[in-house]
Specification:
By secondary structure, the chain is an alpha/beta fold. The protein has 2 domains: 71 residues, Transcription elongation factor, GreA/GreB, N-terminal domain (Helix Hairpins); 73 residues, Transcription elongation factor, GreA/GreB, C-terminal domain (Chitinase A, domain 3, Roll). The chain is built from 3 helices and 7 strands, in the order βααββββαββ. A 5-stranded mixed beta sheet has the order 5-4-3-7-6. α1 packs antiparallel against α2. It is elongated. The relative contact order is 0.16. Keywords: Coiled coil, DNA-binding, Elongation factor, Protein biosynthesis, Transcription, Transcription regulation. GO terms for molecular function: DNA binding; RNA polymerase binding; translation elongation factor activity. Belongs to the GreA/GreB family. This is Transcription elongation factor GreA.
Length: 167
Amino acid sequence: MYDNLTASDIKKMQEEIEYRKLVVRKEALEAVKEARAHGDLSENFEYKAAKQDKNRNESRIRYLEKMIKTARIISDNSREGEVGLGDTVEVYIPDDDETERYKLVTTVRGNSLQGLISIDSPLGKAIRGRKAGDKVYVKVDDRFGYDVEIRSIDKTTEEDEDKLRSY
């Protein structure tokens, strides 16, 4: 499976990999050495915890490297007046009589609890490329969907605030 990522996503992932290799890895190895020095490893909780932290760091490095290796680089540019990657969109949901604000982001930055909606989510797919005033049907699956109306589109560029999602 290929993830759609921007050049900025790749750069952030590479920075995290470098930080984890140069800083976190050294700290984790030192913690394992120190815990090992405390004696019997079979009953040493500190040793087990240190090993888990070290393994979690190595796993995250492998995960990020695989994401970069299999990524499909996409442009974060969109036409004027259309919903695009990085834009904050206000949508009206008639079924709930509510207005919500979402920022359209790539999968690695998505966090619906913070209003960051992935371009690969049903809502993201439905509104991407649409214009303010468009009424759109969001198909969740074969049996369920809902309507939304795009009220406004704000072109935003503060991508640096959006953190990479942990796994």
